[in-house]
Amino acid sequence: MGIWQSYRMRVRRKRLGLRALRKRRELRPVADRTADLSRRDILLFCTQRNEGARLPHFLDYYRALGVNHFFFVDNDSDDGSLQILARQKDVSVWTTRASYKRSRYGVDWMNWLLRRYGHGHWCLTVDPDELFVYPFCDTRPLRALTDWLEASNVKSFGAMLLDMYPKGRIDAQPYQPGDDPLRIACWFDAGNYAITRNPQLWNLWIQGGPRARVFFRDTPEKAPALNKIPLVKWDRRYVYVSSTHNLLPRGLNLTYDEWGGEKTSGMLLHTKFLSTFPQKAEEELARRQHYGASREYIAYADGIRDNPDLWCRFSEKYINWRQLEILGLMSKGNWA
Amino acid sequence: MSGRQGGGPVGIVMLVHTALHRAEQVARHWARAGCPVVIHVDRIVPRARFDAFRHSLADLDHVTFSQRHRCEWGSWGLVAASQDASDMMLDRFPDVRHVYLASGSCLPLRPVRELQDYLNRHPRTDFIESATTQDVPWTVDGLNHERFTLFFPFSWRRQRRLFDAFVEVQRSLRVRRRMPSGLVPHLGSQWWCLTRQTLSAILQDPNRARHDRFFRQVWIPDEAYFQTLARKYSTQIESRSLTLSKFDYQGKPHVFYDDHMQLLRRSDCFVARKIWPHADRLYDFFLSDDGRAVSRQEPAPGKIDRLFARAVERRTRGRPGLFSQSRWPRAGRTTDASAAKYAVFQGFAELFEDFEGWLSRATGAQVHGHLYAPDRAEFAGRQAVIAGALFDSAALRDANPRAFLTNLLWNTRGERQCFQYGPRDTATACAIIAADPNAQVSVISGAWAVPLFQSNANFADIRAEAARLQGVEARMLKTWRDGRTRARVRIWTMAEFIEAPTEALQLVLEDAGPAKAPRLSEAPRLRDLAGFGQFLQNLKNQGMHPYLMGDFPADPMVPAPKDPERKPYLVRK
Q1: Fewer CB atoms near the end CB (10 Å): N or C, chain B?
Q2: Do B311 and A336 touch (CB under 8 A)?
Q3: Cβ of B400 and A147 within 8 Å?
Q4: Quick one: which of A147, A255, A279 has its CA closest to A195?
C-alpha cells in the first residue's frame, strides 16, 4: 500500500513536471536578465495581472528582505504593470495571454520557471498581495533564515496565509501606489483556524479567518485553504501541486511537528482587502478564471454588496511578528 | 603588547573553512593585539581562494599557515589539523604560554588584553571541558561510550545508513576496542585553551602514534582526543571552555546574529561561536578598538544559556494546547491535550433555573451555554463573536468540532471556561471532550426530560423526542464511562442528584474553578418538578421506557430535605 501510494505520487509529480514543460510555450520573455544570476541568489517567483498599484511597495518590501532577483509572469495586463516590471534592473518578466485557469491558476508557469531557474536556489513563491513575515524579520535578512534552514537540513518552510482587513468599509480608505497596504489593512483574526491533515500529500489543511467567518459561514468546507509553503530550496525534480499549498515529493509538506514540538514557521500577510478589491472582484467574476468556478469571487461579490465590514470586536490589530508568535499563529521553533 | 608583561602571550590556533573574509578580520584583530596566530584552512577550500586569503594576511609576520587537512565533521581531520597547527605554534613562538583553539566563525567579545590578563592570573590552568562518558547528556545518534569502543569507517553525514548498520552489526557481534593503557575516555567541547606544558606533553608523548591510531577510529575525535589526554598530563584542569558555544537538540551550534548584541556584551565571555558571517554589526562592534574599560568580570553565559534552552524546549515540547501550522500533535498522545482545564456540565441547565448565571456568580469562570447547540454556539452573554474572533456559526463549528474547542481554550488562556452539553448537541463533540485530560465533566443523566416535561408539545412528539434523546445520551454515557476516557467524569442519575443537590453542587463548583466563597452561599433554584413522576409514568404507559433519570415515584414528588451527612454516589475517573 505504502509503495503503491509512493508510486502514484511519483507518477503525479512526473506528470505535473511534463505539464509545466508543455506550458512553457505560452510564455514570451519581455525582459530576461537571468544572465545576472549568481549561485547563492535568493529568488522570488510571482504571477500577476493588473497589479500595477501594488508592485512598487511589493518590490521594495522584498528587496529590503534580501531577495536578489524577481521572476514575474504577467498574465495579459493592461494597466502598464508589465512596463513597470520590465524597467526594473533585478526583474525578469515573461508575458502570456493564455488562460490562467488552464495553467492551473498560474502554477504550471511557476513550476516551469522554478524548474528552469530555481534549481539549487532558495525560492520564494508569492502573490502580489502577499507579504512574507518570518521570525526576526525585523532584525535578520532572509539570507539569515535560509542559511539557518540549510544548516538544519530543512528544505521547505511553511507560512500560513493571514487575511488582513481594514476597519470599516473595504473601500473607505483609498490605496495609492507605493503605500504600505498594512497601514490600511492592519486587522486580522487571531484564533479561529481549523486544521486537518491531507492524508495523501501530508500537508496540513488550514481554513478559517475572516473569509470563512463572513463569506463562508454556512459552507465552511468551501472556504479557501490558508496553508502555504512559499519558501523552498528548489530542486528541478520538485513541483507545486495546488497553488503553493503543497508540493511533491510530499516530504516537503511536513513543515509541522507531530510529536508536540513546534517547527519554525512564518506568515504570509494577505492584503487582498483594500479599496482596489471590489472592482477587482467584479472583474475577476466576469473573467471566470479563478479556482473552483470562481466561487470565492461569487461569494465576495455577494458579501461585499451586503456588508463590506470584515472587522469585528475581537479583531486583532497587527503590530509585528512577535505578536503573531505569541498568539501561536507562527513559531520561532528552535531558531533563537 | 600587554601580553609580554606578566607572561608569554596567548597563541591562537584558528581552524577555518568558510567565510574567509571574516576569518581574516578576526586573525588581524588577534595579531594586532600581539597574539601569534596559526591558521589551518580546510583542504576543501580551492587553491586559488586559499592563496588569496594567505596573501591578504601576508603583511603580518606572526600570522602563519599550517599544513592543510580535510576536516569533515566528526572525522579525524580536525584533530590532525589542531595537532599540526599547535606543533607549529609551540615551535615557532617560544614565548607562547597558552594556546587557544578557535574557529573561523569565533568572535572575541572582550578586548584581547582582558583574556591575556585572565590567563596571566591562571598561568598553570588548562581550560578544557572534559567529562567522563557516563556524565554527559550530549549523545548524538544514541552513541556515548561506544564512540570509543566501536569502529566508525563511514561518514555520519553522507553515509548514514551504512553508518547505522555498521554500528548495529558491531553491537550484535559485541565488538569492543581496548582503550590504550593509562587513558580514561573523556568528552567535551572541542574549543579549548591549553598551557604549553600540557599541550607539548600530549604532542610529544612517546606513545603518540598509538594514541593517534586509536583515536583515528573514535567517532567525533575532536571532542575526545585532547579532552582525554589532557586528563593524563594536566596538573590543573578547569573543566569548561572559554568559548561560548551552544548546541541545539540536533547537535548543531546555535548561531549569533546582530540582535544578540546586548546579550553577548553582557555575557562577559571571551569568545563566542558561532557568528553568522553577515552579522556586520557584531563584527564591527566587537573588533573595534574603542578603548572599552578593562573589566575583570568572570564569564557569565547564564542568560544566553536560558535563551537557547527555551528554544530547544519550544522545538521539542512546544506550547501545550497549541494547534497551529507549526505544531499539530497526532491524536491520542499526551501532547494533544487542550490548553487549560475546563468544566463541562450535562443536565444542569435543564434541572436548575438560570444555572449559567448562578455558576458565573459563584465562580470567577466564563460560563457559556450549550457551545454545541444545534442552531449556534451559545457563547457567554450570547455574543456572536468571542476572543480570537471565534464565530458562533454552527456550520463552521461542526466542520471541525475539535478545532473549535481547542481554539476556544487557547484564545481564553488564563480564564477558566465552563460550558453546557447534552444529547441535543453535536454528538461528535462527546468523544473529543472525553479524550481530553483537561476536561472535567459532570453529568446528571436523564435531565433532558425536564424541558420536554415543561414543553407545550403534543405528547406523541414528546414521546418520540424522549426516545431519541435517551438513545443519544445512553451512547454518551458509554463514552464517558469508557476505559480510554481521559477526562475526569462524575455521573449522577437525576433521582440521585436531587436527593442531595447541595453536596453535589459543592463538588461541581470545585471543577468550575476558584470559587468566590469557600462555602456555597446561594443555591441555584431547582425547576418545579411537581408532576414529573407522573410525566415519566405517562411515557411508560405509551410504551417508551425512560430509565436514565433513575427511579421517580409516580405520585406528586417533594424535593427531599437536604441531608449534609450523606454522600452522593459518583463515578470517578
Answers
A1: N
A2: yes
A3: no
A4: A255
**In the block, residue with C-alpha cell 591510531:** B213
Nearest alpha carbon to residue A100 among A78, A72, A71, A74: A74
167-186 in chain A: CB under 8 A from chain B? none
Q: Tell if the CB–CB gap between A212 and B396 is shorter than 8 Å.
A: yes
- Domain assignments of chain A as residue spans, ordered by start: 2-326
CATH of B7-140+186-299, one of 3.30.70, 3.40.1000, 3.90.550, 3.40.50: 3.90.550
B413: nearest CA partner in chain A: A327
Q: What residues of A are in contact with residue B248 (Cβ under 8 Å)?
A: 334
Q: The complex's ipTM? A: 0.92
Task: Determine the topology of domain B334-541 in CATH.
Answer: Rossmann fold (3.40.50)
| Long-range contacts of B357-361, Cβ-Cβ distance < 8 Å, separation of 24 or more | B358/B522, B358/B524, B359/B418, B359/B509, B359/B512, B359/B524, B361/B516, B361/B522
What is the structure's pLDDT at A283?
80
Torsion angle of alpha carbons A184, A187, A193, A199, nearest 10°? Answer: 30
pLDDT digits (tens, 9 = 90+) for A290-299: 766 667 777 7
Is A256 at the interface with chain B, CB within 8 A? yes
Write the CA distances from A29 to A20, A51, A111, B241, B564, integer angstroms: 16, 19, 16, 57, 87
The parts of chain B modelled with pLDDT lower than 50 are 1-6, 561-566
Q: Where in chain B is the domain with CATH 3.40.50?
A: 334-541
pTM equals: 0.90
Spatial neighbors of B492 by CB under 8 A, at least 6 apart, are B443, B444, B445, B504, B568, B569, B570
Hey, is the C-beta of A314 within 8 angstroms of any chain B C-beta? yes
The rounded distance, in Å, linking the Cα atoms of B404 and B344 is: 15
Question: Is A289 within 8 Å of B363 (Cβ atoms)?
Answer: no
CB atoms within 10 A of CB B77: 21
- Give residue B437's pLDDT: 92
Please, where in chain B does CATH 3.90.550 lie?
A: 7-140+186-299
Calpha distance B129→B394 (Å, rounded): 61
